[in-house]
Amino acid sequence: MNKIIDIHTLTVQLPTRREHKWTGLTEPIGRYVLVKLTDSDGHVGWGEAPALKDWGGEFGRYFGESPAIAELVIERYLKPAIVGIEVGNFGALHERMDAAIKGYPYAKAAVEFAAYDLAGRALGVPVHRLLGGAVRRRIPVTHSLGLIGMEEAVREARSVVDEGIRTIKIKVGQDPRRDIAIVKAIRAEVGPAIDLCVDANEGYKTPGEAIRTLREMELQGLKYAEQPVMGIEGLAAVARAIDTPVMADESAWNAHDVIQIIERRAAQIVSIYTTKPGGLYRAMEVAAVARAAGLICNVNGSVETGVGNLANLQLAACAPAVVLSCVIPVSTPAAQQHGQLGGIYYRDDLLVEGMRLIDGCIELPDGPGMGIDVDLAKVAKYQIQGAVA
Ligand SMILES: [Mg+2]
Questions:
Q1: How much is the average pLDDT of 76-93?
Q2: Is 387 a residue whose pLDDT tops 80?
Q3: Are residues 174 and 231 located together in one domain of the fold?
Q4: What is the CA(198)–ligand 1 centre distance, in A?
Q5: Residue 296 has what pLDDT?
Q6: What is the pLDDT of residue 389?
Q7: Which domain holds residue 260?
Q8: Which residues lie across from 298 on neighbouring strands?
Q9: Which of 144, 164, 246, 291 could form a disulfide with 321 if both were Cys (CB 3.0 to 4.6 A apart)?
């Protein structure tokens, strides 16, 4: 049986199409750690840690991970723990990683994505087969409008709707008056058939402020209100007071968090990441807990490069609780970009072939492993000096 014999890390920085910001973010997106795993038969798998120091759990419950931290954790603690593991044994992989160091789900997720990619390529099957099979082949894309000016936001909303996008997420949580006005302006531009959602990234100061603001926004029709305030108790207060379903994101990192959300009736929707719980294997657990309680989910992320985004697609295809459109990029190399904006956050990507937006959806790739090969020339082009030599 083939075994994992080598693990290599490097840091890349992709050029962004425009600044993409949300409440609390102070570092640019796109500077992420890549992991390359090699097995004893020479197969290779790739993973990514889209780690951001500003992205953590509430009340210090989960810490931010910067690229430098993720790289250090992988090199110093995870690498010695996982060399020698049988390819395809994800249970053992997680057990060994968790025994090596507590926490650091983004570092662990990067290693685990590479292990899934490697196993799929070694076995000649797509990762979605390893996750239990795809329950949907076309993943509808939610286009995320960061904290940008009103005119730019309205213009971009128009463009992406014209390209086929059917769901738009608007980043809010800074100033209630601005937030209400931007939702109104975008609704006026795109009409009633487009789903609009708002994500405050815990930005409202109190549940009361969130409730007053969301009640105004609800008049425009909202699909859901994502993480209006910090904390499961705060979410529960908002969820009781408004008609729009509340989505937990910062409050929902792993299966245990979702159990607390269910107990407190804090949200009707859970935003699942491949990274917050520490990888696909754990993300499927989160989805199973949500499904057992009748919660629905989307797949959300940190504006990954194509490498990490392929893992997002696999999860979005396989988890039966994931019925909503997903905030995943349409990862596209520069040569295949022709001025479109829908799901495009970077001017280039690390995959040899782009994900195409068709009727507002991404088709699940069917190639072995994660489904699309990594472009080694692009990896070399965008590699920057990492923190760990
Ligand atoms: Mg969010």
A1: 98
A2: no
A3: yes
A4: 9
A5: 98
A6: 46
A7: 130-363
A8: 271
A9: 291
